[in-house]
Structures are given as C-alpha cells and as structure tokens.
Amino acid sequence: MAPKDVGPLLPQLLAFPPHPPPAIPLTVAAYDKEIKHLRKLLGEIPNNLLIGGVHNGGDLLDILDPSINTLPYLFVLLGHFYASRQKSTVLGSPLWIKALGFMDRFDPLQPTAAIRPIRTAILRLDPSGSCFTSTHLVFVRLCLEARTFRAAKPVLDRNIYEFPSTYTAIQSSDRFLCSQHDTSSGFINNQSELSDKLTYRDPLSYFLYGASIYMALQEWDRAITFLELVLTAPTKNNPSQLQVEAYKKWVLAHLHAHGVVPGSLPKTTSSQVAKVVRVIGKPYEALGDVFKDGLDKELDVGRLNAEIQAGNSVWSRDLNLSIVFRVVDAYRQFSIVKLGSTYSALPLPEISKRTSPTPDDHAETAQYITTMIMIGRLNATLEKRSNDVQSWVVRFASTGTQSLSEQEQHAELTRQAAKTAELAKHIRSTERKLLLSKEYAESIKRSRQEAESAQRQDEFHEWIDGGPRAVDDEDIMDDA
Q1: Which of 1, 198, 316, 347 is such that its CA lies 20 to 30 A from the CA of 182?
Q2: What angle do helix axes 302-310 and 282-296 make, rounded to 10 degrees?
Q3: Cβ contacts of residue 244 below 8 Å, gap of 6+?
Q4: How far is it, in rounded angstroms, from Cα 229 to Cα 202?
Q5: In angstroms, rounded to a whole number, what is the distance separating the alpha carbons of residues 417 and 422?
Q6: What is the 3-state secondary structure (H, E, C) of 350-401?
Q7: Tens digits of residue pLDDT in 81-125
Q8: Residue 394's beta-bridge partner residues?
Q9: 247 within 8 A of 261, measured Cβ to Cβ
C-alpha cells in the first residue's frame, strides 16, 4: 500500500550521510554507493509526497538540514518550485529564502549525484540557456568531475549570448521580474540575485570545461568553438593560464577533427596571446607537424607513436594524456580517408597493410571501416564478395564526405534558420540594452561636446583666416 505522506520514508532520507560522522570515515566507494542509493530512492518518490511533508510534522524543508541532508533537501526544494505558481517564488517569498539558504549551506559532495535536477533547475529558470550565470560554471564543473559528460549537453548545447545585466532598474522598462522579457538577461541581472558576481575567469573556465566535455564525447568541432572563445578573450598583456591550456587542447582537437593544425589562430586573437601560447605549446605543435607529415608521405604510425612517447611527461603534466593517445586512432582514420582521394577501390588486405596496427587481422579492419562508414567519417562501401574476408573490397565514393538526403538538407536548413532567428533576437536585445546604458548616454554626450567644440574652433580659425576683407589702397582712392 502506497504511503499517504513521506513520513514512513523519513528515516531513510535522514540515514545518509550518517550524523554525527563515524569515527572511521566512509571510503570513496562506500560513499558513492550510498549516495546513488539515496538518489534512486528520491527519484522514486512522487513529487506530491515530497512537498506534502510529514503528517502533523510539517514541511520537509523545515525538517531536513541542507548542510547535511543536501540531496533530499534539493529534491524537495525543486519539487516546490515545480508545483508552485510564479507568485510563490518571487523575491522575498518563503520559498525564495529557502533557496538562498540552501545555496549558502549545501554539502558540495552530494549534488554530484543530483546533476540532473540541477540541470533541470537551470533550464527551467532560463529555457534558452543563453544568459551565463555562476550556476552554469558550477554545473559543468560537477559534470566534469563526476564524468557524467552527456548530462552536461542540454546546457552546453545552448549558446551563450549574454551575461547578467548590470543596468539599473531606472534605466530599464523591464525592471519587474514578472515583466515580459525579450531575453533571459532581462530578469537575470545584478538585482535579481540569480547569479553570483562573475569574474573574468568564470566564462573562460566554463568554456574550457565545456570543451573538455565535448572532447570526451568526441564532438571536436564544438570543442574547437569553445576553445576559440577562450583564446580570443580580451587580455591586457600576457595570456592567462586558461588560454594556454585552451591552446594545447585546440591543437589536439584540430588533429582529431581535421587532421591538421591551422597555421594561425583566429584573427581576433591578441597578437601577444598568440605569440606566448605558441611558444609554450611547442610540443603540441611538433606533434601536429609529425601527424601532418606522416599523412602527406603515407607513413605508418611508428613515427607518431615515437613522438607521443617522447612527450609523455608533457601530456601527463597537462592532463591531456588520454586525448593524445587517441590521436593515433585519428591518424588511422585520416590515413584511410586519404586513400580514397588516390584510389577508387582497394582490397581490404591492402588497407590493413597500410593502416592497421595489426596488418594481418583483416576482420578487425573490416569492422573498423564499417564503423567509420556508419558514423559518417568515410564515404565508401564494403563489398563482401565471399565469406573470405581477404576477398573483400572497399570502394570509395567520389566525394570525401557523405552527401545529405533531401530530408536531411531540409532539416539542416530549418536548424540554421532557427539559429539565425535566435541570434537576431539577441542582437536586438543587446542593441536595446546598449541604448539604455549609462555608458552609452555618457559617450553620446561626450561625442556631442567634442563635435561642438571642434565646430567652434573651426569657425574661429575661419574667421581669423578669412575675416573682414582687408581694404586695399585702390579702393580708398576710388572712394575719394
């Protein structure tokens, strides 16, 4: 029989973590097991029971301690937000005060098991995910530490267009939280307290963490975009450590995505940043040179492996060892793709001989090529002429990449049109905020003053140079 309230489940919610802490602390493995069990239990409790509280015992938010029972408290808090109307979550409301208290006191270990609820809360507050907040950074760092990479994608896949507004309520016609806002930065601002104060490092850290997650998921082009946002960030003098790390990953991401490192950084990168990061990142550039040279000369993977082994201490120190090791697989893939630019077809044993680390294992090569075809890395067909793998032939298509079907083209055009419309909306919002900003008003005033001053000076010099016309002697004589 299902319980009428959460009372019977309360002992289980309070059981972990044990309080007071045991004399012998729980091992990491034991803690992980218990927190996952608690997360599963909470996920199975209907929301109406969580927010219904305990019979004659009150609301769970008044029973649970957020500094100890962080995970249950978070689930109950989110449950109230889901069930409440907007008037119950305005600034100063009891629920709002509970949320602020939670953010000040929660146990940072427990929310790693509650990544999904935190993500849901972020996107419920701002479905567009377009305004960067301090919560974005906390969430992505938790996903990276917990290695729950795919859980981060719904947030990371939403482009950041704006930061919390700093214009004052007097300057904004959308000064109330309940106003209709064009974009989320209308209510995520310096007054709503929906984000902590941001520093220069916060967005750079977010994009660097995000790039690391995309690289773990092998979404290389998206990772490159995030890394370039770090590299092109304005800086006064030398690059920050975050930009140095971003450059190293940028080189590796390009090797995986395109098989070559561009000769220069994005044009908007500071010349000083570009100069310094390239000097520090020399080992990575050398790895890229060996990669490209090997592909151009159709060499085996031996030289690349030697370069990787020689720089093991560098990759390990930079925490890039696993990404560097995967470069070998990228080299194999690009070697196979390159064969398609030279030959229209090749026997499978020949491809094994040229590209496989185990040249005699033709079945493994066949499986490898099949996988490349399925994920779109190779536009080819595998002809199985008999049961003998050695008789199979790989027939390359005339183009290097697979062409899109009419339906796929339509879907891509629709997606691009939606992205363009979204970008245009945020551009309009940014222009509007610029026109309302104090800095813009002061700039216009200063420009007018400078223009008026310049005009007065021009009039003065014009009067001096060509003032009242001098009267010559002949005119005087004529008058006489």
Answers
A1: 198
A2: 170
A3: 276, 277, 280, 281
A4: 13
A5: 9
A6: HHHHHHCCCCCCHHHHHHHHHHHHHCCCCCEEEECCCCCHHHCEEEECCCCC
A7: 767 644 444 555 677 677 767 766 766 666 566 677 677 777 777
A8: 346, 382
A9: no
